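Input set for joint prediction.
Command: fold jointly, output tokens.
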Amino acid sequence: DSGVTQTPKHLITATGQRVTLRCSPRSGDLSVYWYQQSLDQGLQFLIQYYNGEERAKGNILERFSAQQFPDLHSELNLSSLELGDSALYFCASSAPWGDFEGHTGELFFGEGSRLTVL
Amino acid sequence: QQQVKQSPQSLIVQKGGISIINCAYENTAFDYFPWYQQFPGKGPALLIAIRPDVSEKKEGRFTISFNKSAKQFSLHIMDSQPGDSATYFCAASIEGGSEKLVFGKGMKLTVNP
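tokens >
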């Protein structure tokens, strides 16, 4: 158990709809990352938040948005869904940066939310 | 443009054999190279990581070999076991952290008993 909790585990919806994925990071972790995993693209970095602020942006579509709340949980909002958005969405958290020997930088992934768009 | 290229895409080995997964990168600014292991239905988990100031790092049956001049690094799994059957991702980042970590597409390893 990584300590990162994601809900829901599975979600089936229709094209054009909007969904929200939720993530609770490990206790004490300030950074939250969102990744999309598909068969052909592997793990694609979407966005990172650090202590409530957007820190880095990857290949995130304009139809997608995210935020991190004061209690450090994060939500990924996916709107105007298309068939191609069907994928596994992972949230990960990491501890504040420090010494490498302390395994700083390690990402702790949740078990993912599987989104199916029909 | 894929910044980290992983090969092969899949591998089948017999129990006790050696599994080798290769990765190549293009960005010479990368300075942190982790490998993540993912079992079906689970999220990836850090297996082992290396920085470019060393050419090899070993943890149990798992070894990373790093070739800075060739911009390649590889994961060797010695005495492969059926429990090692998983998908393995190489990754790379700048400034040694997990921010903007770039992953390879993954390699599915099957170890037959």
